[in-house]
Design goal:
By secondary structure, the chain is α/β, with parallel strands linked by helices. The protein has helices at about 10, 50-60, 80-90, 90-95, 105-125, 135-150, 170-175, 195-200, 225-235, 265-270, 330-370, 400-405, 435-455, 455-460, 475-480; strands at about 125-130, 160-165, 180-185, 205-210, 235-240, 260-265, 280-285, 300-305, 310-315, 385, 415, 425. It is about 35% helix and about 10% strand. It binds pyridoxal-5'-phosphate.
């Protein structure tokens, strides 16, 4: 017989059981107007305690950064400081309405303006907009800005956008949505953009390149200055996918590398909660010549400070803006958390973020590379990619390793990305984990590598310790059953 914790809420239902009691009605009963009632809803009948236990049990099935190590490569699942949450919950900020008169939201506009300024400073950029809802949408904006700029320069024949073969799928998607034809550029044996391959496309039709640095192999591109020079000399522009900016904050300014327009994933680098599809925020920042094309609105000082009065902030539309991509100000509560995070870390602390994240990643890589194949064996940045493919464990794939990690209570890393590493396990520890946590992770990963050879069924049948075992992942996504 099933215990209550194994039953669905529908199986727990007992006819007539209630979780509420209404006060006796002091008005005459009336029927609902025709057509308003939807008929009987098949809702379970439960007590308040049944409902509380049900949702508490479900919440415990969630894996989160607050619950355990989350080495999901390219996602920067770092600890989300609770002070940021506290600020976001302050009534003076959380109860604002974006249609309030501008003079009543000066504090919120100051926060937007200062966040833009901090992000521009970190990137060496001239201007920025915070409205895009995610990295992918910020990419779309940045590439649209490139298209608009080229159009204004009479360069409409420039239709080719280059995408390194290690890139995230959102890069080609953004380019295609902006009307460009994507051409893949090869990665060389050291994990850098292959300059010979790049040179083939450097002509009159080149619109630009979308480059991620450090790239999705977790490597700093040693050819980056040549890449941006070659694209610029050919008349193209350079988009910098800043999803991996956690490694560079306060150390390298993308503008100094030749990047013209870039985005930050505030929900990764600046530690706002993410996962499960949002909400996020993807600020887009650019050099001077692209500033007029930014998506609006952007926060600006509309009246300078005098000796007696602070500046007056407003929202302005850049002159040749590609338009609005999100309602009102973007995801204000996410931007606010990122702002508080920046203020807590401070200018000097920014550098430590990337240094510690890089140290942690190299520590893990060095401790695992004798038991897992490492396709690009050089010092990594904030993450690294293993190839879970062993000659003496031919039946094992990255998927099996990832599933086995769940039996050890760990969240799996990103797998099968980047696409150029066949059995990719992309591991990003972030700067917020202690050496104890990293050591425990190393032990688990070494045990799994041993099991792959001595007892492969442990991996191919995993996970066995989780509430559900191996799912048909395609069916689970296409035919989702949410009633647990
Ligand atoms: C390298 C890279 N670029 C872009 C993105 C897209 O960012 P978002 O998920 O915020 O849309 C991601 C997300 O994982 C990424 O890893």
């Amino acid at each position: 017989m099933k215990t209550n914790s194994e039953k669905t809420i529908f199986e727990m239902s007992v006819p007539g059981r209630k979780g509420f009691r209404c006060a006796p009605s002091d008005v005459p009963a009336a029927d609902l107007p025709e057509g308003l009632a939807r008929g009987a809803l098949p809702l379970p009948e439960l007590s308040e305690l049944d409902v509380v236990r049900h949702y508490t049990r479900l919440s415990r099935l969630n894996y989160s950064v607050d619950g355990g190590f989350y080495p999901l490569g390219s996602c920067t699942m770092k600890y989300n400081p609770k002070a940021c949450e506290k600020a976001a919950a302050m009534t003076g900020l959380s109860a604002l309405h974006p249609l309030q008169p501008i003079e009543t939201v000066q504090g919120a506009l100051l926060i937007l303006h200062e966040t833009q300024t901090i992000l521009c400073e970190l990137g060496g950029m001239a201007a920025g907009s915070l409205t895009p809802a995610a990295g992918a949408q910020a990419e779309f904006c940045g590439v649209k800005m490139i298209a608009a700029y080229l159009r204004d320069q009479g360069q409409t024949q420039r239709k080719v956008m280059l995408i390194p073969d290690s890139a995230h799928g959102t890069n080609p998607a953004s380019s295609v949505m902006c009307g460009f034809a994507c051409k893949p550029v090869k990665t060389n044996a050291r994990g850098n953009v292959d300059l010979e391959d790049l040179a083939r496309y450097c002509g009159d039709e080149l619109a630009g390149i979308m480059i991620t640095n450090p790239n999705t192999l977790g490597l700093f591109d040693e050819n980056i200055l040549d890449v941006t020079r070659m694209v610029h000399e050919a008349g193209g522009l350079v988009y910098g996918d800043g999803a991996n900016m956690n490694a560079l904050l306060g150390i390298v300014k993308p503008a100094a590398l030749g990047i013209d327009v870039m985005h930050y994933n505030l929900h990764k680098t600046f530690s706002t909660p993410h996962g499960g599809g949002g909400p996020g925020a993807g600020a887009v920042c650019c050099v001077e010549k692209l500033a007029d094309y930014l998506p609006g609105p952007v926060a600006a000082v509309i009246e300078e400070m005098t000796d007696e009065e602070p500046p007056v902030y407003g929202l302005v539309e850049p002159k040749k803006s590609i338009g609005m991509v999100r309602a009102f100000w973007g995801h204000f509560a996410i931007i606010l958390r990122a702002y508080v995070y920046c203020m807590m870390v401070g200018k000097n602390g920014m550098r430590e973020i990337g240094e510690t994240a890089t140290l942690n990643a190299n520590y893990l890589m060095a401790a695992l590379k004798d038991v897992y194949p490492l396709p690009y064996d050089r010092v990594c940045m904030h993450e690294f990619v293993l190839d879970a493919k062993w000659k003496d464990a031919p039946g094992i794939r990255a998927f099996d390793v990832a599933k086995r990690m769940m039996d050890y209570g760990l969240h799996p890393p990103t797998y099968y990305f980047p696409l150029i590493v066949h059995e990719a396990l992309m591991i990003e520890p972030t700067e917020t984990e202690s050496k104890d946590v990293l050591d425990a992770f190393i032990n688990v990963m070494r045990s799994i590598a041993e099991e792959a050879k001595t007892n492969p069924e442990l991996l191919t049948n995993a996970p066995v310790e989780t509430p559900f075992g191996r799912l048909d992942e395609v069916k689970a996504a296409k035919d989702l059953k949410v009633a647990v």
